[in-house]
């Protein structure tokens, strides 16, 4: 019998996941929700929308969660979504959100007690790669279960990195975002300072790109520095702030140093408090000229 795949969260990333699952022949259903992206194209390809999370769960062999973060995952599983009680023995829950690892481990224990499996598989890359089926997945969970999921995950991911047991995928995602988004924030702060000092933006970009500042973060920022284009990094300040709050909590729980991460969080949180949470990360280069965060 073909596996029935359920998805909760048809946002910018979830839409691409659902589309590629359908294109590769997986029987795909999703939760109808006001926060979804338009789903007409998915419906036309054969996807079926379900009215409640619990009903969707009861008929799913694999349930993919593609929601924002820990509060939403907890609500889906143990709160208003009532998913935990609706799980059938043997169901595999895949959490593609960015979440606090300690919460992931706790939820995985609850899922396991129902005779089911929990895998954390947060994503990197952007909605563009999601639509192309070229995401990176950072996966934590039982090795045999993860191996069994490889054909499914490969339907929407180009690279799958197995990090270890449950929770390690979310640990790896937070480490990744600390480095990647932290570097973006560092460069945008430098750009803002350079602008206040009258430094040529062309000279700054050339200097960084031909020296120690070269890399993916700078490449994604150059279109904004030069032409105020944000297409290369449509990730909001509020989302980055959330991720850094998770990172700091994780590091604190592990007894690890996180002074630099705390400083980056202070900058992001300062912009959110100034009402700039919906801005995209490259726009920090301008916002940090307007709002001086100290």
From TrEMBL:
Every 3-hydroxyisobutyrate dehydrogenase-like NAD-binding domain range: 167-273
Domain of life: Bacteria
Domain 6-phosphogluconate dehydrogenase NADP-binding: 4-164
SUPFAM superfamilies: 6-phosphogluconate dehydrogenase C-terminal domain-like, NAD(P)-binding Rossmann-fold domains
Active site, UniProt feature: 173
Keywords: NAD, Oxidoreductase
Residue ranges of the TM segments: none
Any one Gene Ontology molecular-function term assigned to this protein's record: oxidoreductase activity
Name of protein: NAD(P)-dependent oxidoreductase
Species of the source: Bradyrhizobium frederickii
């Amino acid at each position: 019998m073909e596996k029935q795949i359920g998805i909760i969260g048809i946002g910018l990333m979830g839409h691409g996941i659902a589309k590629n699952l359908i294109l590769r022949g997986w029987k795909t259903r999703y939760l109808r929700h006001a926060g979804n992206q338009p789903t007409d194209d998915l419906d036309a390809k054969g996807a079926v929308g379900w009215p409640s999370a619990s009903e969707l769960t009861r008929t799913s062999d694999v349930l993919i969660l593609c929601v924002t973060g820990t509060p939403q995952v907890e609500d889906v599983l143990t709160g208003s979504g009532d998913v935990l009680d609706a799980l059938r023995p043997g169901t595999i829950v895949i959490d593609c959100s960015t979440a606090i690892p300690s919460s992931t481990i706790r939820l995985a224990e609850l899922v396991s007690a129902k005779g089911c499996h929990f895998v954390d598989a947060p994503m990197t890359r952007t909605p563009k790669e999601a639509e192309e089926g070229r995401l990176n997945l950072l996966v934590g969970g039982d090795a045999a279960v993860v191996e069994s999921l490889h054909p499914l995950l490969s339907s929407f991911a180009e690279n799958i990195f197995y990090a270890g047991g449950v929770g390690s995928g979310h640990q790896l995602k937070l480490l990744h975002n600390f480095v990647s988004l932290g570097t973006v924030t560092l460069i945008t702060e430098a750009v803002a300072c350079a602008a206040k000092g009258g430094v040529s933006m062309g000279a700054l970009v050339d200097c960084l790109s031909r020296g120690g500042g070269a890399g993916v973060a700078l490449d994604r920022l150059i279109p904004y520095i030069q032409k105020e284009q944000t297409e290369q990094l449509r990730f909001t300040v509020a989302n980055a702030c959330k991720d850094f709050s998770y990172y700091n909590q994780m590091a604190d729980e592990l007894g690890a140093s996180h002074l630099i991460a705390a400083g980056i969080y202070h900058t992001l949180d300062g912009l959110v408090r100034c009402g700039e949470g919906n801005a995209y990360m490259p726009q920090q280069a301008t916002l940090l000229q307007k709002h001086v965060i100290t």
